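Progress note, sequence design subtask.
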């Protein structure tokens, strides 16, 4: 594959940083976005030294700042919407501000980037939009009502966008990982109880998933789902919803 220009959000750690490392090793040109320049610089330091990497310290939660930044951004060939945040909290205890913050970062920010950058992809006749969503977009679990809502919304948007762009040369891929041992849990699960309760069978390997995502660049891959056990559960859930509810409470109530 010839070098592509990639825009990766949430690239300061976790899956975003892992994607950056794999993409850099393949010779792609990277534009990395996150709030903190120092954290982005740490990601860049772990990438192939020969890679072309541009850092963009930006708070995607600030819609006005994003709108001002976008015109100066070189049009990417591949947009990877990875930035996101979560909070494990009962629905009735989650504040309006916390819900709004998750919806802005997890749903509205990716849509804002797509709306601004996809038209150029359509005009060129090629491009790839990869939305990192979540298995929570398929199965809602206790204490994640607002987070699950934000991910359900992005999954629905991605599915509709894929249909609308069919035949344009622009591909849309949804990536639905289960829980990963990344900085996401520093905020969502600070005491680590949820991760310990899940065990290794339910956790997603961020580095392995990053390699799979990079291998899908410019390929007609509808979705990528990990871990396979959780994806199997998501497929069976509609067939036996009562059992699915029991299983979800059994494994995912320990937040």
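Output:
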């Amino acid at each position: 594959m010839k070098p592509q220009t990639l825009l990766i959000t949430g690239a300061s750690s976790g899956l975003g940083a892992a994607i950056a490392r794999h993409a850099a090793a393949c010779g792609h040109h990277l534009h990395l976005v996150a709030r903190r320049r120092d954290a982005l610089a740490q990601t860049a330091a772990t990438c192939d030294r020969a890679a072309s990497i541009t850092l963009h310290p930006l708070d995607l939660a600030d819609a006005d700042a994003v709108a001002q930044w976008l015109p100066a951004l070189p049009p990417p060939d591949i947009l990877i919407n990875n930035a996101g945040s979560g909070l494990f909290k009962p629905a009735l205890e989650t504040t309006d501000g916390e819900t709004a913050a998750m919806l802005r970062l997890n749903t509205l920010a990716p849509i804002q980037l797509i709306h601004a950058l996809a038209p150029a992809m359509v005009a060129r006749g090629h491009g790839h939009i990869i939305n990192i969503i979540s298995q929570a977009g398929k199965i809602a679990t206790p204490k994640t009502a607002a987070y699950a809502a934000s991910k359900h919304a992005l999954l629905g948007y991605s599915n509709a966008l894929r249909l609308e762009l069919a035949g344009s040369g622009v591909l849309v891929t949804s990536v639905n990982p289960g829980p990963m041992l990344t900085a996401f849990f520093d905020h969502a699960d600070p005491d680590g109880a949820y991760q310990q309760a899940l065990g290794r069978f339910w956790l997603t390997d961020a580095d392995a998933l990053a390699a799979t995502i990079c291998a899908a660049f410019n390929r007609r891959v509808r979705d990528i789902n990990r871990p396979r056990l959780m994806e199997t559960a998501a497929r069976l859930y509609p067939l036996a919803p009562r059992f699915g509810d029991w299983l979800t409470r059994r494994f995912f109530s320990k937040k």
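The first strand starts at residue 5 and ends at 9. Work on this subtask will continue into the next period as scheduled.
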